[in-house]
Structure of Short-chain dehydrogenase/reductase SDR:
Amino acid sequence: MNADRRPAALVTGAAGGIGGAIVAALGDAGWDVLAVDLRPDPETGPGASFAADLTTREGNRAAVEHALDRFGRLDAIVANAGMQHVAPVADFPEDRWDALLALMLTSPFLLAKYAWPALAASGDGRIVAVASAHAQVASPFKSAYVSAKHGVLGLVKTLALEGAEQGITATAVCPGFVRTPLVEAQIGDQARAHGLPEEDVLRDVILAPHAVKRLLEPEEIAATVAFLLGPAGRAFTGVPVTMDLGWTAR
Ligand SMILES: NC(=O)c1ccc[n+]([C@@H]2O[C@H](COP(=O)([O-])OP(=O)(O)OC[C@H]3O[C@@H](n4cnc5c(N)ncnc54)[C@H](O)[C@@H]3O)[C@@H](O)[C@H]2O)c1
């Protein structure tokens, strides 16, 4: 990054629980932020907002072009937008498979592709995908989510190797369950899929894999992303940055 000017980041899923916290943390750390979402929330934080459907090529291209038009540069991409669908594989709707893969695997690829020249010009470009513990382990009834998250970890490793000579780093933050609408919305689906009452789902399903029995808070993920985008994050590339309260220690 050129120290004479404010660095600029594009954050996707910025109207959501984790994305909103990331926009706020980067604003506090002195970044210009383009907050991209299907339905941007102007109240989310200090960033400028931009509406785009990131399941489409045009949406991803428009988001990068808008950031470059607005800031004249781009030093970081935070590919955070995501969604979930919980269903057994035999019943899994094929359109939902396509949409989850488009949003959580293809969008990070397209954002990296379109932003690549600007990230290289930055001299200190950063790509962070907000992946999941599900980039490293699986759970039943989440075939599309687990596949997309494993895929984005592979993408990040590849970007790290390709970006090494150009000063571009790439990492995948891999959280356990975080207190956001995405988790709250799946309690009913999980109850149906597991045949449990909704009140048992948080304890018996959602927190079951965590060694530490609590949800992460969005601000904890945001602080990690801000760290990875800051000077101390420079040594992290091509790796999952796991923050899963002991899930994958077993
Ligand atoms: N909440 C968790 O427990 C948890 C755990 C690990 C990883 N994650 C990951 O963190 C990321 C953020 O999740 P969250 O919990 O904040 O979810 P969230 O539902 O609060 O936010 C997701 C955001 O993505 C946006 N989005 C959805 N479809 C889009 C599209 N087509 N184009 C543009 N934007 C779109 C939504 O509008 C929403 O604002 C996701 O990638 C998720 O997989 C979440």
Notes: The domain at 8-177+216-243 is CATH 3.40.50.720 (Rossmann fold). The chain has seven helices and seven strands. The helical segments are 17-28, 57-71, 94-122, 143-163, 181-194, 198-206, 218-229.
